[in-house]
Design brief:
The complex is a heterodimer of chains A (300) and B (369).
Chain A: E1 9-16, H1 18-26, E2 35-39, H2 61-64, E3 83-84, E4 96-99, E5 115-118, H3 121-124, E6 135-137, E7 148-153, E8 173-179, E9 183-186, E10 197-198, E11 203-209, E12 218-220, E13 237-247, H4 249-253, H5 256-261, E14 263-267, E15 270-283, E16 289-298
Parallel strand pairs in A: 5-6, 5-16
Antiparallel strand pairs in A: 4-7, 7-13, 8-11, 8-15, 9-13, 10-11, 12-13, 14-15, 15-16
Chain B: E1 6-7, E2 13-27, H1 28-31, E3 40-42, E4 49-52, E5 63-71, H2 73-78, H3 85-99, E6 111-112, E7 122-123, E8 125-131, H4 133-136, E9 139-140, E10 146-150, E11 164-168, E12 177-180, E13 183-194, E14 214-217, E15 222-225, H5 227-231, E16 237-238, E17 241-242, H6 258-264, H7 267-277, E18 278-298, E19 305-306, E20 312-313, E21 316-317, E22 333-337, E23 343-348, E24 361-368
Antiparallel strand pairs in B: 2-18, 3-4, 4-5, 5-8, 6-7, 8-15, 9-18, 10-11, 10-18, 11-13, 12-13, 13-14, 14-15, 16-17, 18-24, 20-21, 22-23
Classes of the chains: A mainly beta (300), B alpha+beta (369).
Chain lengths: 300, 369
């Protein structure tokens, strides 16, 4: 008679992240662990070989051999792709969050493939940099119709747009992170949003929710027709996230961060100082995450 | 509704306390000899000597312990101390007020030989081994402390190890004292460890009239030893503390015995002489680890899907061919989150763990403080 398998209980040691240590040091009660999540950052699911001739037991053998990294203590470096709990096991398609660049006002800058944000008034009002696709006015976001748009939904025509996305898969709340030293987030009309939290690395988190009424950041995508020129999600659609970026006072009033973090380049024939960064967008319902590349520019 | 975070309930979190012990052996040749005393740091104030495990000018050096000498005020009145008298008295009083405390009149108590403060004799001259926090950690484990000295009577460099005595906290695992303001302490006894420098068994550890030769303060990490008792014969008796060796030990090239060094030599010279006689130091340290254990219960219907970008190809799940196939995910990490969903701690699995609706598991995530 064999021994019973007792491997179901897995013991592992956790390390505090830098944010965890910071909150512990504050001793203000903000160090409070109330929930957990699982993540699979190292896993490449394209290694799943459902045609393996040896049988289904071998489909995931390459995934199981993936070497696992030790934990990083930077709170922003890990737990990027989280596992989800869904009551249904028969889902074949899941929604994604995807940049919608179909309209000129939502496109990235063609030459650099980035969203370019002008840092100060002089740069924003330079003729060569005005009314250019992908160059957004970061000095005065209200004075620019361009914004960043992300659509959420099932990007596969096998689930046509006319099919309602199951409520469990509709992304109703987003967390968006940006380096607070560089910029702040605004809604698609340019009104500054409130920061929810700034971590020890200066990364600001903003929470945007789908609320009843006219939310200017998260809105329900009600277009159910296919073949339209405005929709980047091929299948069933969920919500739309619309954002603008306002530059920080650090960038407007000083060149020091450009010297420290960036360099010099040419945009639309103008020589500018620049800093490359990204904003991180994560759906709190599905955990799906996408990073959008952003470049701040300023005339010397 | 899809969700990626699972709330802990009160049944999912518990705390534990673990005592971790490490063995700390210190070879005597490191303390005296191997590094030609380049690992010994003396100070211009001359009040103590620091011993390192490597030449102390190197960044690799670790502090092992400090060594010093103190005499009580009473000792000073009985015998004329000609070298560093004030400093020796100050050292004694400083350590006495911290380790023994004050009596009802507010006077500093002397170190008591048997730990019964109301009666019995006291140690009036002591050498102090102040162990670094790096080695002793939270405390020295009771019943594990031992100092071994070379006890051949003649002076030599290095000292002969043919005869040795061991000073240790015999029986302290079960019997120790709690009447010190600095925590628990044990009484140090002596035994022969090579040859018979101590004659007779009754005064050795475990004997009917075992001689108390010093004290070990476990939480403070300080050993105090009466050098007259352990390095002299019975002809030497200072304030009722009589030597117990068969022959007194010559401590320096000038032929001085310990009583002469206490009165006429500097603290540094006395510390040098003691280090030359030191054969071995060993103890187990103790680290108290307080842990919170989070039971991350992953039920059969939870965490079966992933938000990993590679999980989908055109929104279709790669690990499923048909709707009826079970979803599968391979977690590699568990994150612990605050109410505002900031990552506060993270633990990693050693290998990807298959998770599908047919299985469930509990991750015991331990966070140490």
């Amino acid at each position: 008679m064999g021994f019973l398998d007792n491997s179901g209980d897995i013991i592992l040691d956790a390390v505090l992240t830098d944010t965890g240590r910071m909150r512990l040091a504050k001793a203000d009660g903000s160090f409070q662990i109330t929930a957990f999540a699982l993540a699979d950052d190292e896993i490449d699911y394209s290694l799943y070989d459902s045609t393996n001739a040896s049988g289904s037991a071998y489909y995931d053998q390459n995934i199981k051999l993936t070497p696992i990294l030790e934990a990083f203590t930077n709170n922003a470096s890990f737990m990027k792709s989280k596992l989800m709990s869904l009551s249904r096991n028969d889902l074949l398609y899941l929604p994604v969050i995807k940049l919608n660049e179909l309209a000129n006002s939502n496109k990235r800058h063609a030459a650099s493939n980035l969203f370019i944000i002008t840092a100060d008034q002089t740069t924003a009002e330079t003729t060569a940099l005005q009314n250019v696709q992908g160059i957004l006015n970061g000095y005065d976001p209200t004075d620019d119709a361009k914004f960043i748009r992300l659509d959420q939904g099932i990007d596969n025509s096998a689930v046509p747009p006319s099919t309602q996305l199951p409520p469990a898969l509709v992304e109703s709340q987003y967390i968006v992170k940006i380096n607070n030293d560089l910029g702040n987030l605004a809604d698609s009309y340019g009104a500054l949003a409130s920061t929810s939290f700034i971590d020890d690395d200066g990364i600001a988190s903003y929470y945007f929710s789908l609320t009843a009424g006219a939310s200017k950041v998260v809105t329900r995508n009600t277009i159910t027709s296919s073949g339209t020129s405005t929709q980047t999600i091929a299948g069933s659609r969920g919500t739309i996230l619309s954002l603008k970026i306002s530059t920080s006072l650090n960038l407007r009033d000083s060149d020091s961060l450009f010297t420290e973090l960036g360099g010099t380049t040419t945009v639309e024939g103008e020589t500018v100082n620049y800093i490359d960064t990204f904003i991180s967008i994560e759906g709190l319902t599905t955990g799906y995450r996408v990073d959008i590349p952003v470049r701040f520019i300023k005339l010397p | 509704m899809a969700r990626v975070y699972k709330q802990f309930t009160s049944n999912d979190v518990t705390s534990t306390r673990t005592l971790l012990h490490e063995s700390v052996p210190i070879t005597g040749t490191i303390i005296s000899g191997t590094y030609s005393d380049n690992n010994i740091k003396n100070y211009s104030h001359g009040m103590f000597q620091s011993v390192y495990d490597y030449p102390y000018l190197s960044s690799s050096a670790n502090h092992i312990f400090d060594l010093t000498l103190g005499v009580s005020t009473g000792y000073s009145g009985a015998v004329t101390i000609t070298s560093q008298a004030t400093k020796k008295v100050n050292i004694y009083n400083e350590l006495a007020q911290v380790l023994v405390g004050f009596d009802e009149t507010g006077s500093v108590r002397n170190f008591d030989r048997d730990g019964q403060l109301a009666t019995g004799s006291t140690h009036t001259d002591l050498v102090y081994f102040n162990f670094s926090r790096l080695l002793s950690k939270d405390e020295i484990k009771k019943g594990t402390f031992a100092l071994e000295f070379m006890a051949s009577s003649g002076y030599a460099v290095p000292a002969s190890s043919a005869l040795r005595i061991k000073v240790y906290d015999s029986g302290a695992a079960d019997v120790y004292k709690t009447n010190s303001p600095a925590g628990e302490y044990g009484i140090l006894y002596i035994t022969n460890s090579a040859g018979s420098p101590v004659s007779g068994t009754t005064i050795q550890a475990g004997g009917a009239s075992a001689a108390a030769v010093g004290l070990i303060y476990y939480q403070a990490g300080i050993a105090v030893i009466n050098p007259v008792i352990i390095m002299c014969d019975s002809t030497q008796n200072i304030n009722g503390n009589q030597g117990i060796l068969s022959s007194s030990l010559t401590m320096n090239v000038g032929g001085d015995l310990i009583p002469a060094m206490i009165t006429g030599s500097t603290i540094q010279a006395t510390a040098d002489a003691l280090r030359n006689r030191l054969y071995n130091v060993s103890f187990n340290n103790t680290t108290e680890i307080n842990s919170t254990v989070y039971f991350c219960r992953v039920n059969h219907n939870e965490f079966n899907y992933s938000s990993n970008p590679t999980y989908l190809a055109n929104s279709k799940i790669r690990v499923k061919q048909r709707r009826s196939d079970p979803p599968v995910a391979y977690p590699t990490a568990v994150g612990l989150y605050s109410p505002d969903r900031e990552l506060l701690a993270v633990g990693k699995l050693s290998a990807p763990q298959r998770k599908d609706p047919a299985g469930e598991f509990t991750l015991r995530v331990r966070l140490d403080y």
